[in-house]
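Hi V.,

Quick status before I head out on leave. The structure for the redesign project is tokenized and pasted below; the design run finished overnight.
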């Protein structure tokens, strides 16, 4: 059982990222929800200046980004109800690549969650599974082959993505601090590509998806930076 604190005092860092389901055929990757007892004694709460996450100390859990803030993202379904449109061959390739990036993030954070006590990894991994599900829905909608279909954790269609995953996994396996830095790096690296894709998108549903992915990735970046500070 993981300890629930990071400092010398046992400090609760509970909470969960937005896990709202979306009515899609594509499956969400498996992941258990948050559990365990409520928050720590009042003295322990006061000892930790870092935002505690979504556990409010009374056993209630909100949807958040790992620092207690509400999150609406691809998993809330709004991006998938926007009208479809025209998608170029280049944009189809970008969507397929985005699926692999979402899987990379999910698999990476899941591996770190199993290794380290920082619950931010588990929370964000669950959010990434929703992101992947949303991307898969658009892949199906536009007749794009899903490069992540049937691939187990850590396995990818692209040799470059596989190499990136292996490199980041090895880097983050040094210690928890290194893993938090890897998380921040992974989110930061994906942002320029997603921003360019959102700018180029003409189909309303595709643009909305990227806008949501960008917003949640920015919050994930902030969460990793906060936990690593």
């Amino acid at each position: 059982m993981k300890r629930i604190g990071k400092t010398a005092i046992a400090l609760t860092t509970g909470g969960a990222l937005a896990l709202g389901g979306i009515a899609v055929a594509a499956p969400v990757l498996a992941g258990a929800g948050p559990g365990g007892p409520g928050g720590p004694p009042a003295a322990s709460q006061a000892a930790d200046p870092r935002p505690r996450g979504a556990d409010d100390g009374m056993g209630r859990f909100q949807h958040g980004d790992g620092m207690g803030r509400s999150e609406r993202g691809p998993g809330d379904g709004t991006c998938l109800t926007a009208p479809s449109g025209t998608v170029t061959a280049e944009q189809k390739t970008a969507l397929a690549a985005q699926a692999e990036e979402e899987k990379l993030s999910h698999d990476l954070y899941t591996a770190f969650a199993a290794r380290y006590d920082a619950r931010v990894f588990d929370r964000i991994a669950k959010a990434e599974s929703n992101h992947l599900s949303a991307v898969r829905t658009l892949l199906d909608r536009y007749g794009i082959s899903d490069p992540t279909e049937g691939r187990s954790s850590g396995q990818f269609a692209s040799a470059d993505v596989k190499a990136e995953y292996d490199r980041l996994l090895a880097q983050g396996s040094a210690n928890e601090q290194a893993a938090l830095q890897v998380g921040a790096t992974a989110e930061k690296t994906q942002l320029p590509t997603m921003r360019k894709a959102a700018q180029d998108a003409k189909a309303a549903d595709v643009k909305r998806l990227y806008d949501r992915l960008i917003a949640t990735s920015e919050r994930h970046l902030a969460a990793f930076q906060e936990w690593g500070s």
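Above is the designed sequence. The chain has six helices and two strands.

G. will cover questions while I'm gone.

Best,
W.
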